[in-house]
Amino acid sequence: LLDAGADPAAGTPSAVDTARMFGKDDLLELFGAR
Question: 23: helix, coil or strand?
């Protein structure tokens, strides 16, 4: 989805918020949100 231009910061909760909630540091790094 990122390659297609999806925004991981969009939505409630966003993909970034969800990754933080579940401690998915690898996804936060992928999203550039560390």
Answer: coil
Walk along the chain (34 residues) in steps of 10 and give the mean pLDDT of each run: 95 98 97 88
- Please report, for the chain, the start and end positions of each structural domain, with discontinuous segments joined by +: 9-34
Contact 34, 27 (CB under 8 A): no
Q: Backbone dihedral region of 10: left (phi > 0), alpha (psi from -120 to 50 degrees) or beta? A: beta
Note the pLDDT of residue 34. 72
Beta carbons of 15 and 31 less than 8 angstroms apart: yes
